[in-house]
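quick q for whoever's on today - can somebody do inverse folding on this one?? i tried earlier but teh output was garbage lol. tokens:
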């Protein structure tokens, strides 16, 4: 198990930065996710760490050892590409063994190690098959075996579930968890799917426009986003503009908003009175009367529309000032809700996140 330290990486394409000072630490044996939208710099970062492209600025260390100056074959990084990148003219056995062949491993030892790793990922029966006859999840397992067979210090998977059908994703997700538990290998998964990242990661880093903007346990990043971008990218969020009025007796931030005064907690520490802010509230954090927990924020609302989603209902409200608010309610606890009814909405201060600055996106009103 190794610790990976990435410091201030810069990479430009046609003078446009794909990475602009990205820094990240992956702890030994950790299953870490790098989450971001398409074009945010995830794959570029992986290619620099793996040695497939040169670093322009910054450093990469494995257990304190500089590796960004080493050739790719000397870095011991196993990389699973998003498109698997299997050799179409080689069978599974030879595809998986190709990396060993490039490292000068003899044929007999190469075959022994390949057979062992094929068994580990559950595809030993496919050894003689060609890539063209494999299902997508089988191709992904072959690519994973090829990355593992070289006994890497770091395993990187580039959006591994993106090409799988939804019904096949839980199977591979469970397989990846099992393999990680068995090998305890330091692992970085690149993903554009917040649900997969939240479900699997031990620690989660969010990247945007070449910057790592937040790192932490999945629950912390989801519930305590550092910015409006993180709040919206990880899930639905009501983003409400406001202005700091001060603090209450507990030290929580009091914010004047179109919904009235809301008490919340800042991710950036104390905020001076008058500071323009954005309040972020997850829809599932909003309670819909009549009872209101002690100390909770409350505001009057009208139920404008509801959508049945199975186990939950999406409830669209109109609050004070005709401000739109989205809530989620368990189906079993919301059967009595009716469109057009007036009700009291509430949310505890610990679920009201106060972010410095005004969110400029189109979704800043709900």
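ok took a stab at it. sequence:
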């Amino acid at each position: 198990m190794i610790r990976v330290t990435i410091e201030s990486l810069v990479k430009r394409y046609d003078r446009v930065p794909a990475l602009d000072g990205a820094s990240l630490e992956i702890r030994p044996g950790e299953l870490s996710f790098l989450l971001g939208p398409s074009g945010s710099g995830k794959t570029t970062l992986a290619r620099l760490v793996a040695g497939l492209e040169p670093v322009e600025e910054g450093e990469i260390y494995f257990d304190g050892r500089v590796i960004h100056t080493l050739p790719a074959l000397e870095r011991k990084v196993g990389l699973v590409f998003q498109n698997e990148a299997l050799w179409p003219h080689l069978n599974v056995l030879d595809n998986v063994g190709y990396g060993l062949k490039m490292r000068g491993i003899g044929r007999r030892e190469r075959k022994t190690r390949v057979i062992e790793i094929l068994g580990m990922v559950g595809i030993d029966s496919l050894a003689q098959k060609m890539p063209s006859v494999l299902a997508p999840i089988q191709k992904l397992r072959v690519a994973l075996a090829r990355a593992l067979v070289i006994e890497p210090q770091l395993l990187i998977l580039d959006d591994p579930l993106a090409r799988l059908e939804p019904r096949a994703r839980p199977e591979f997700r469970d397989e990846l968890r099992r393999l990680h538990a068995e090998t305890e290998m330091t692992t970085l998964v690149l993903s554009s799917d917040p649900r997969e990242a939240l479900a699997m990661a031990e620690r989660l880093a969010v990247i945007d426009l070449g910057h790592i903007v937040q790192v932490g346990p999945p629950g912390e990043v989801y519930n305590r986003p550092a910015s409006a971008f993180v709040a919206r990218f990880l899930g639905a969020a009501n983003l409400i503009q406001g202005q700091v009025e001060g603090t209450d007796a507990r030290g929580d931030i009091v914010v004047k908003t179109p919904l009235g005064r809301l008490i919340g907690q800042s991710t950036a520490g104390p905020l001076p009175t008058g500071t323009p802010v954005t309040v972020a509230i997850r829809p599932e954090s909003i309670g819909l009367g009549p009872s209101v927990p002690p100390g909770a924020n409350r505001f009057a609302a009208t139920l404008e529309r509801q959508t049945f989603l199975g186990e939950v209902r999406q409830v669209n409200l109109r609050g004070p000032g005709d401000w739109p608010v989205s809530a989620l309610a368990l189906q079993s606890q919301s059967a009595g809700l009716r469109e057009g009814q007036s009700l009291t909405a509430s949310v505890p201060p610990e679920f009201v996140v106060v972010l410095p600055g005004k969110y400029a996106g189109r979704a800043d009103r709900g």
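fwiw The first strand starts at residue 4 and ends at 13. also The mean pLDDT is 91. so keep that in mind when u check it
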